[in-house]
Specification:
By secondary structure, the protein is of the alpha+beta class. The chain folds into two domains: 2-138, Gcn5-related N-acetyltransferase (GNAT) (Aminopeptidase, 3-Layer(aba) Sandwich); 141-267, Aminopeptidase. Helices cover 24% and strands 34% of the residues. The strands form two sheets. Strands 1, 2, 3, 4, 5, 6, 9 and 15 form an eight-stranded mixed β-sheet that branches. A hairpin with a 2-residue loop joins strand 2 (54-60) and strand 3 (63-77). Helix 2 (35-45) crosses helix 6. The chain is globular and about 65 Å long.
Length: 295
Amino acid sequence: MLRYRFKRSFSSDLNLSDTIGDRLFDLMEATFPGLNDLAECGRKLGAPWEKASTPFIRFHDDVAITHVGVLEIPMVILGQKVTVGGIHGVATREGFRRRGYYREVMEEVLEYCDQIYETLVLTTPEPEYYLPFGFRVVEEYIFHVQCSSKGNINGWRILDFSDKEDLTLLHRLLETRAPVSHVVGVVNEKPVFFVNEGSRDLYYAEDLDLIACMEIEGEKLHIFDLVSPKICSLKDILSRIPQLITEVIIYFHPELLDVENVQLFPHKLEDTVLMVRGKFAAEGEKFMLPRSARC
């Protein structure tokens, strides 16, 4: 039995990509079918998650059997910029579970992270695996706004990532973005965004210089994230959608959208919960970590 502990990302040692990468992604695909396609999307967009991740891996012979990765996520929490550690890619190969390998690797991860980060975050459908390591569930909320809006213009277009200009635009806005909320928001982050949003339609309004991660379902508008140097009002967003919208569901705190009569409800996004370890100033506030930043 061999154990590898890396205190560096793949990008800092190209040999890791050659000697470790294929075996790690084999484990990832076995545990999370389809994840490799999402990772490949990030590579094509220019910010692969392995470039930003510090991998902790245990091997059996030449087979990766357990992995826990650590990413840095620059956030704004209650108006203060902080860098948190994001725990992601937690996986143990079937046949090697319930033998203590995951616990051993996670303990290494926490020993490493405690020297660097005051706060760790992760999202998971299975919080029971992280409670023994000091993580706790933080309740999240979605925000409903009733309206009756039919825009006069079609002010949105879908970005085309085969177009170099659109790809350059996306990178520029991610690098210069304002937080979508000062309660909990993200700034200047790409790898996690690309994994979560890179395979979805992203809408761009040129006059607002804003990318919206949004979906329309009948007369409902779902807004998951906004990427822009300046967050505009909900009215500005709706006025550029040339169809009737009677309800808007917002998946982050909407204090910057200039909305009134907001209803909020506890919600698990895609059946996952947010867990934190250590200091988290927004605990007890009503918010949701945007879909684009969940790992």
